[in-house]
Amino acid sequence: MDMHNHAEDILARAKAVGAEAAECSVSSTSRTELNADVGGFTLMRTTFGHSVSVKILKGGRKGTAATNSLEPEDTDRMIREAVAAAEASQPDPAEDVAELCRNGSFTDGALEPDRDILYTRSAEFLADLAARWPKVSLDSFTAVHIRSDRQYLNTRGVDLVSNAGVYAFSAMFYAKDGELTSSFASTGFVTATADRPLVECGDFAELLDGCVAQLSPVPFEGKAVCPVIATPACVEGLIGDALGNFVSDVPLIDGTSIWKDKLGEVVASPLLSVRSDPSDTRLACPTRVTGDGYPTAPMSVIAEGRLENFLLSRYGAARTGLSRAKSYGDDLVVAPGKTPLSEMIAGVEDGLLLCRISGGEPAPNGDFSAIAKNSFRIRGGRIAEAVSETMVSGNLAEMLRNISAVSCETLENGDSVMPYIRFDGLTVSGK
Amino acid sequence: MRTIPELSFAKSLFSGDTVLRAQTNSTRRVVVRNGVVTANASSSSGGVSARVYRGGVYGFSSAAGFSDEDVRNVIAAAGENAKFLDSRLAYGRPALPAVGRFDGLDRPAEDPTEQKQLLDYALGLDAYIAQTYSDLLSRTVVVTGLNMEKCVLANEGCDFHSFVPRVYVYVFLTVEKDGEPFELFDCFGGGGTFGELYTHPEEHADAIDRLYRHVKAKSEGIFADAGIKTVILAPELSGMLAHEAVGHTSEGDFVLSGSVSAHNRGKEVASELVTMIDYANNINGKRCPMPVYVDDEGTPAEDAVLIEKGILKDYMHSRETALRLGCRPTGNARGFAYSDEPLVRMRNTVILPGKDKFADMIASVEDGYYLLSTSNGQADSTGEFTFGISMGYEIRKGKLGRAIKNTSISGVAFEMLKTVDMVSNDLYLESNGMCGKKQSIPVGLGGPALRCRVAVGGR
Fold first, then answer.
1. Do B376 and B417 share a domain, yes or no?
2. Which pLDDT tens digit goes with each residue over B384-424?
3. B161 and B231, same structural domain?
4. Residue A315 belongs to domain spanning
5. Which of B17, B29, B42, B173 best probes binding to A when mutated, by most A CB atoms within 10 angstroms?
6. Cα–Cα 20 to 30 A to B240, which of A412, B70, B150, B371?
7. Are residues B386 and B434 in the same domain?
8. Is B159 in the same domain as B253?
9. pLDDT digits (tens, 9 = 90+) for B128-164
């Protein structure tokens, strides 16, 4: 199937039914996947699919529709649905399609799957697990090669193509010893090459060790305000939540972001720098083309605590009168600090090593509370007992201001690059 | 999409234990944000998939189409995939249990809804909110529908054609207090097509007024006092408790890997006031919000009694987990999209009502919280659960007091359920959420109000 021709044909037909502007995205995805659980390999799966979407502007009104079929009658139906939706809608002056910046084609990773590599790395992981972590029970394991090809075309001349192929490995596991069960832990790793054993990648080994140490956790006693060192995986979630709440389209369009007037101002500790950076070579499969039809480029979001850019799409920018982001926050890289992790831990008299949090979504103002999972007490500058039934409460914006150390070590999992961060002023409570 | 008679030729291509599924998921979505239509979309995604079982492993394949060639290709590829794994592993495991036959169509696969109906409804509701409440910082109305149509053909099970529509309306209100935003949402709807569920936007006026009063109270609210507290969980929360705290740990695959339910079968895990069932398709003759008559392995769906009067009785099963745990398949194997393999998933997980009156339950609490609504929840292998609380009130000396800001609650399921000492006599059912377990899938859940003790987050 020629994706360019298919998209071009859809745009021509959209114009023929009166669209003043239109955009079309045609993509195909194929997956070669192996699954395993506690009993070993369970399933091999191969899937192949398409996705076609069209956005039509007619009289300033927007209608969108999508199908996974390339058949002419389904394409006709999709265009009719988009036109009907637009005609039933209301005009929105902020709606448009992307203007032409730079056309191009981008290719990343290993486009063709190597079934033997997928099987060998997976079998090796299961063998390593049995040999080195006999108390660990594998709830689920997925090894997959994903090939994605996408063509974006619009009526303003934008023509962008991206082709990518990556191997992604993910596992969820916990430790068992008699009737003792640890909390589950899960992690993943994305790579273009799959050239190393999985237990040497990302934080697999660290989490597997931690899981076994979690078999006899101790509830946190009482309530205290104490320092918390968040692991890179935990930092990724917290930073993602903060960006979603404070610098993305919806809170800025609605006016609910507490950073809406803070562009150029200090919003975090000078130790914090966050970039959305598709050019970082440590990322296996960066986003090359945004959903709304722009090639991405590296962009600083927070530089040494100062808010430099919002993560606004074209529509978000038009609605708020602010600038469109060069990249929408998919490829997050947090700059390392200068403190070794060992020194960060040694500097905590009584606190937590926070490895995962589980709880409600943060409120629009950043308030959150969540259970500490896979986490450990730090006592006298050393990692002590695993904790259970321990709640952590705070405010995302305050947390980012109360950073007192960032590690020089980072976790590179192929999706993002994150350090350990020490946050002060969080409330920790237990039984 | 093709029907079972049109697909029946494929059975001659089956080798061994094979299931063929043809499926289309159709969605509609409209978002009106402060009077502006920001999303106005429909989509349809369908195709065929096949799964072949061979000696203890599965091969699976899917294609985005319904042609004879697509059917032949996925059956052949699934067989090849099973062969690839079996040739390397040679587990030699026994055949999966056969199941009974139950062929048919559960309801006509018809939905005459047009996008304009959703748009007009969302705009009408938005206009009502704008006219009625002048001090909102932001308002958002979302109308979203999902129709799932499936044909399952199995040579060791049933052939069944199902159509499960659901439509929900979500309303988000945000107010500002001292420069800080406070948001709350509610949702209305359930199983059925748009025309079956909705007539005019003002039908939700009382519910929106209640939502407005709650979000205003929340903006004046206080942080909860952290610690173990006596709480009244509203019926909207007890379904989440059933799903997260017990349901996940009682899924057959999770039991096999050693979840906390694995070694508690037959033991007392809750107060005798607690009975919990994963219903297949109807409760007392009424269609459930997420009905499953035949699952995606071709197994006729049966109710699974998880807890009966405080005793952990049984689990939820696919054919394989039933074989490995020596139980009967319950029809819980479901896949979300045509390209998803079936996994053990909940259907309609419900705590049964008791005999207490809700007002008496509030009056019985000397010092605690009434928790009304949740944003999301998660469970753990240990039975430790947590979910976000987006609305709640203090209870002091049997009376409701100040509202509280967002918080989370947590506990260890089989400890916390033993503290349940009052259960209300009403039952709330819903299916607006999606459960994530490799694939995100709609589930039904529900329950009555419960009085119990849980850990409350706060400052």
1. yes
2. 888 889 999 999 999 999 999 988 898 889 999 999 999 99
3. no
4. 240-334
5. B42
6. B150
7. yes
8. no
9. 999 999 999 999 999 999 999 999 999 877 889 999 9
**C-alpha–C-alpha distance, residues B246 and B240, integer Å:** 10
pLDDT in tens, B190-221: 899 999 999 899 899 999 999 999 999 999 99
Which amino acid is located at A273 in the chain? Answer: S
| Pair (A232, A203) in one structural domain | no
Nearest to B180 among A181, A365, A429 (CB): A365
Interface test with A, best of B180, B256, B319, B415 (most A CBs within 10 A): B180
Pairwise CB contact (< 8 Å): A359 & B65: no
B243 DSSP 8-state letter: I
Q: Are residues B171 and B277 in the same domain?
A: no
For A82-118, give the DSSP string: HHHHHHHS---TT---PPPS--EEEEEE--S--HHHH
pLDDT, tens digit, 9 for 90 and up, residues A197-220: 999 999 999 999 999 999 999 988
For residue B342, what are its two tokens? 């079936």
Q: Which of A43, A35, A87 is nearest to A61 (CA)?
A: A87
Inter-helix orientation angle A72-88/A3-16, to 10°:
40
Residues 322-381 of B with CB under 8 A from A: 324, 339, 341, 374-376, 378, 380-381
Domain of A160, CATH number, reads 3.30.2290.10
- Report the residue from B182, B339, B455 with minimal CB separation from A47: B339
Q: What is the DSSP letter of B62?
A: E
pLDDT at B381 over 90: no
DSSP H or E stretch at residue A130: helix A115-132
Strands B439-442, B104-105: pairing is unpaired
Q: Which residues neighbour A72 within 8 Å (Cβ) at sequence distance 6 or greater?
A: none
Which chain B residue shows the shortest CA-CA distance from A81?
B42
Q: How far apart are CA B34 and CA B401, in angstroms?
A: 32
